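Supplementary Text 2. Reproducibility record for the structural model of the 342-residue chain.

All settings were left at their defaults, and a single model was retained for analysis rather than an ensemble. We include the record here because the model underlies the residue-level annotations in Supplementary Table 4.
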Amino acid sequence: MAQTNICLNFGETSLKVAVADSSSNQIEIHNLGFKEDTPNIFEIENEKVLEESAKAISDLFSQLKIKEKNINIVIPDGYTYSQIIEMPHLKEKELLSAIRYQADQFIPMPLDETALDLDILYDDPVGKKLLVLIEAAPQKLIARITQIVEVAGLLPETIENELSSLGRLANQFFSGKSVDSGIIFLNFGFNTSSLYFFDKKKNLIEDIHTFKNGYNLLLKEAQINTNSDLKRSKEMLKLIGFSANASVNLGPILTPVLTDLLSEIEKFTLLVKERHKLMKIDNLYMFNMSHNVKDLDKKIEASFSIPTANLNLSSYIKKNDIYNIFSTEIPAFISTLGGAIR
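Retained model, structure tokens:
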């Protein structure tokens, strides 16, 4: 069966869809769409939520006039477990056994209730070692997502997390020959965020760190401290955020959340520099919900002197009508595009 180029991205409060191909170091986007304020299938398990979610998916695909049924699925890092480990060269059966032992150390649930997958990222024939990505998720969650999608009349071909999706995209577009530097990606999510270190020489993500901090914390602070409703709070974050010259100074309100975020970035940066003997980090690219907070990139760049920007992929996307409509929203679709291109 030919690989599908359609991705459905389940967010905690949204759905995103991308139809895209990649060739000649360019992404061509054929369709993009999203639906906000959808049921949180990761926290609420009941028949009503299943039906509402399936209808939301059906409506979105109908709105986008997508008739194909086979899709790839991306889910948030915060509801999966991922680990990149170094393993010796072993026979397949021995490798699987050793990895199941390793997985037991970082997956906080019985392995017989866990959907487990692994991917060999790098084979070092000289050192006789393998770099292996272990990904896991509760079997109940995978079954629920599969059921929702099938009720919506679609056929899931793959299910992966945001780490896996971003890794594929970075592998295609961010490789280089630098020996002593790399890139950090910040996946700024709703409740949970992730940091990924991308080694440009090996052309792969080598380190990951997922932590509790995200857009929702900033949103709550803005709501409570300005006595605003949800809609107004979202507008203030997008239009004002950390801007120094604004009618409303949100900086002091948002600082506690920012301080915690900066602390996570600092710890991760120091770790990867030491572990990989790096002189510097070339860039820090943000995606997911980061573009909904004005000047967040400037705050991070000022703190670490690392060139920081929202990841818009403008150099790698073929310009067409779809891109023109969504050009400012591309950072929100990074994981969705990564799930579409194969």
